Each structure stands twice: as structure tokens, then as C-alpha cells.
Amino acid sequence: MIGAVVALLAVLPAGSAPAGSAVQIADHDPATRANAVVQVDNMSFQPTTVTVKLDDLVTWEFLDTMAHTTTSNQGFWNSGLRTDGTFAYEFISAGSFAYICTRHPASMRGVVKVRLQATGSPKAGWRLRWAMVPAEDPIDYDVQVRRPGAKKWKVFRTDVTAATGRLNPAKSGKYSVRGRTARNGAHSGWSPVLRLRVS
Q1: Domain count, the chain
Q2: Angle value at C-alpha 96, between 116 and 66, nearest 5 degrees
Q3: CA 23 to chain CA centroid, nearest Å
Q4: 141: exposed, middle or buried (C-beta count within 10 Å: 0-12, 13-18, 19+)?
Q5: CATH of the domain at 149
Q6: Which of 49, 87, 91, 126 is the most exposed place for a label (fewest CB within 10 A)?
Q7: Domain termination site, one of 114, 141, 164
Q8: Quick one: 103 and 58 in the same domain?
Q9: What pTM did the predictor assign?
Q10: Is residue 2 situated within a structural domain?
Q11: Residues 164 and 104 grouped into a single domain
């Protein structure tokens, strides 16, 4: 098992230290993952919102002459102050992860949205994946499902450490699924909605 549980794994430049529950990856080749790039320039994150899949990287490129950070609102990551270079994270659990620059929190805000995955078929049912690895303290996951025609979301899994679960309800129709990640009780926002048909 990797250190103390992770909802996110950090890919950090030499000499920097991960924050919170992140774990440094020693021999990781960023070219093996999809990579969304956020430019930190002109007192802003550009783009302010990126949407990625599980196990994708987000790389922040620091281009401004003024020092900035990329810092998770729930303490998942913190780049520290930077005026140049890059900082990258591999997102391995679903949710909408808000972040700020700690020096300019009122004006510099961003969000990384991470989708759930599903494999299967409408007839056989679906294997949902909301994380790449099971969680350990202080991380846990929540997953909700909305049934066909329903307005309210229902709990599918709450405060779980498991990374996957099977969805195969008796009622046919189109189901909506979303997930989020918590660290020490501080929750990310919900992931983009995944829609699945059951027959």
C-alpha cells in the first residue's frame, strides 16, 4: 500500500514536498497520462475549470512574474509559492476539486472536475469506478445515484473506502451517477454526472 491514503497522487519537482495525504511519485513519466494544462499568468488560472478522467494529470505552468500557488481548498495539494516552472497532480478519485492561490484567494480560483468511469452494458449492469485505489484514513468516498424520473439523489455509497461498486437495478431506464472525495471530513464538490442506461 502507498503511504497514508490518497485521493490524489502528487507528481512533484525535485526538492518539493507534498501536502496533506498526497504521496510523491519517484519514477513517474507524465507522458503516459493525459495532461490538462493550466497556465498561471496575469493574476489568473487559465482556464479556470478543467475536466479530466480518473488517472489524468493536471499541470500548472507558472508564467507570471508575481509568485502564486495552486492550493486545494480541502488540503489535497499545495504547490507552494512559485514564479516559474510547473506543478502537476495525478487525479485518482472523482469529484470537483476547488483550489486557490493562497496569496490572491479572492481573485485566483479554479476547479478540476474528475469524472467517474463505468464498464459494462445496459443489460448486464455496470461496474462503477470512482477511484483508482481504495482509500485509507483520512480519505473516503461518497457516490450518489438518481433514478429515472426522480428529482432527488439517493445514496449509493457513503464514507466508503472501496474504489468500485456494481450498479444493476431492477428498474430499467437512464440513471445518473456522481461521486466525491473527502479528506478529514472536508468534501470535494460532486463530479460531473455520468449517465447510464439500464434495460
Answers
A1: 2
A2: 135
A3: 15
A4: buried
A5: 2.60.40.10
A6: 49
A7: 114
A8: yes
A9: 0.83
A10: no
A11: no
8 A C-beta contact, residue 180 and residue 159: no
Contacts of 122-127 with C-beta under 8 Å, sequence gap 24+, read 122/172, 122/196, 122/197, 122/198, 122/199, 123/199, 124/168, 125/166, 125/167, 125/168, 125/198, 126/166, 126/167, 126/168, 126/196, 126/198, 127/164, 127/165, 127/166, 127/167
Regarding whether 63 and 37 lie in a shared domain, the answer is yes
| Residue 33 lies in domain | 8-114
Residues 109 and 15 in one domain: yes
| Length of the chain in terms of residues written | 199
Is-contact 39 84, C-beta < 8 A? no
pLDDT per residue as tens, the chain (199 positions):
222 222 333 333 333 333 333 333 323 354 556 689 999 999 999 999 999 999 999 999 999 999 999 999 999 999 999 999 999 999 999 999 999 999 999 999 999 999 999 999 999 999 999 999 999 999 999 999 999 999 999 999 999 999 999 999 999 999 999 999 999 999 999 999 999 999 9
Listing DSSP states for 128-141 in one string gives EESBSS---TTEEE
